[in-house]
Amino acid sequence: MAFKGLKIGLLAATTAAMLAGAQGVAAQEGKSITTVVKISGIPWFDRMKTGVEKYAQEHSDMKIEQVGPATADSAQQLQIVQDLVARGVDALAVVPMDPAILEGVLKRAMDRGIVVVTHEADNQKNTMADVEAFDNAEYGAALNERLAKCMDGKGKWTTFVGSLGSRTHMQWVGAGEENAKKYPDMELVDPNNESFDDAQGTYEKAKEILRKHPDIKGFQTSAGNDVLGVGRAIEEAGLAGKVCLVGTGLPNPSAAYLDSGAITAIGFWDPQKAGMAMNSLATKILAGEEITDGMDLGVDGYHSVSVRPGAGDGVLVVGNGMVLVDKDTYKETLF
Amino acid sequence: MSKLDGNLFVLSVLIVLLLAVGGAASGGNYLSIYNLQSMANQVPEIGLLAIGVMLAMCSGNGGIDLSGIALANLSGVASGLVALSIFPVDEAPVLFTITFAGGCLLIGMLGGALNGFLISRFEITPILCTLGTQMAFTGAAVVFSEGRSVMIGSPPALYDLGNGLIFGVPASFLIFLGAALILGGVLRFTPYGMKLMLTGANPKAALFSGFNRDRILITTYALSGLMAGLAGVIIAARNINVKWDYGTSYLLIAILVAVMAGVRPDGGYGRVVNVVLSAITLQLLSSLLNFVGFSNFVRDFAWGALLLCFLAVNRFELVDQFITRFSLGRAARAPKN
């Protein structure tokens, strides 16, 4: 009972769910899926909760909820997962604080017959499927493409990463550099500045770069707070709209800079959709469906996922959930 | 028995109450063997650290040990790296486990002794000293592991320590009870235990009585470190991996457990059995909240409320008053804590 390509968003998802409900998914009735996030009460995971709640509404015959520790500590998350395993939930959708710490308990969970799905943990060994919002290389290239468009394909540009040890950030800027080779007039200067995800420090560093290269035309940043620091430096230098800035960021904090033109565009993935995708995948596994390349999770950005071998016995499910918004479009996904 | 231990009484009642409420709220699921084992399996880490805090508190003069979890992580990381470099995990699992566990305990004890040395010799306030060593231990663990988690692996012997069952009881819980029993015996029956409590109760009198204060302090903090090292072994055995930033929230919870157990923050009084019960109570409560599906912010609130209750119990000797009022004939023997 494969879902055919009904790509009309939510309606499709609901219909599909109803269809699924009608056909032998009696196995899922009354089943419970608990989403465990890294930490509760922060905007990112509050947004994810809206997705989980939405999914719960669409599947009112199942018990679906989201929990998470009150403090950012992998030991606290471990405790919650362990209690849930003991409670006997049917499926766990976990966003691990630290994948290594959860290996033991997730293995025990699977030994007990619990379905385990993870997110943002492509190195997790003990999981049946890890959901990633997008391919890191594609994302980095997309950011750079947007930057090149703003720069008209010429001029000096530089990159920021959270830290040189951050694997995903290095993948993003690496893919960006690769993409920039399409534009011979784009000149990369002083790449891979470390921001440590600190807006203040990034601001200082961006000011230095603006002084050193008065003719710089573009910034591509990686950590969530980088756009804020660089955006502030650009705005204060009176260069808003003249210097391009594209990077990972969240709509709400970036709104003012997007409006002023200090930030050209921000990229991210929507935790709401990721939360729904995890639950959808868990439901499918509970129903005994095979995870196949190109399958439809019924969530925007995850209508045709690519399936690759994971770090352990499980698979890596990669969606196309990247969101790239600018001044005109950010209000559509404001969180 | 001349007097009733208010904390012991309240803790015991609470444990029974929590089990009853949990069983009722979850339709018996909470009382399933699997969950009881799962909860028992979670107690030792925090319980051992809390015993360490208790020892430090008993020594008086503002004694406290903030370096517990940092030392536990350091011992796991450092000993893990050494043991991994000596033995291939798969070929010599037992030897590996013994080396690893021994290394953890040794590092824990040395780290604790360092605390005791700094506090006794240089007269550094315990809270500042252990705050400093906490950062130093964490930093060392970061440097040794280059900030990554260290995979200890799960050789059979080590895995059994963390996850195995002996007569249906988790091995780690038995180790915890064993350590508590030995330490409780030491505090109660040896001259060291007596001297520790007396030093804590009145440092000046202890000094004039000719107690070797330095030795008592160093022994106490070394024991506290030993508990941290043991916690390090159990953490590694349970989680397969160890990491420098594991359990940052344990620091305050360990202190909470100790205070709930009626350990006097000014020193001189504390019972290991109460710490064990207190750690169990906290575990039952937090697992119960996870079972019912409450937000984890509620848990913080519940713990806070519980702590305030216990402070009230201690401060106003509620249990004693209660008993006095209901047994008129024995009113004359109203005990004082």
TrEMBL record, chain A:
Pfam family, one: Peripla_BP_4
Cellular localization per UniProt: Periplasm
Keywords: Signal
SUPFAM superfamilies in the record: Periplasmic binding protein-like I
UniProt keyword Signal, yes or no: yes
Leader sequence segment: 1-27
InterPro entries found in the cross-reference section: Bact_Solute-Bind_Prot2, Peripla_BP_I, SBP_2_dom
Primary localisation category: periplasm
Family per similarity comment: Belongs to the bacterial solute-binding protein 2 family.
Stated name of the protein: LacI family transcriptional regulator
Source species of the chain: Thioclava sediminum
Automatic annotation (TrEMBL), chain B:
Keyword Transport: yes
UniProt topology in membrane: Multi-pass membrane protein
Residue ranges of the TM segments: 40-58, 70-89, 95-117, 124-144, 164-187, 216-240, 246-263, 275-295, 301-318
UniProt keyword terms in alphabetical order: Cell inner membrane, Cell membrane, Membrane, Transmembrane, Transmembrane helix, Transport
Domain of life: Bacteria
CDD domains xrefs: TM_PBP1_transp_AraH_like (cd06579)
Location in or out of the cell: Cell membrane
InterPro entries assigned: ABC_transp_permease
PANTHER family, alphabetized: ABC TRANSPORTER PERMEASE PROTEIN YPHD-RELATED, ABC TRANSPORTER PERMEASE PROTEIN YPHD-RELATED-RELATED
Entry protein name: Sugar ABC transporter permease
Organism of this sequence: Thioclava sediminum
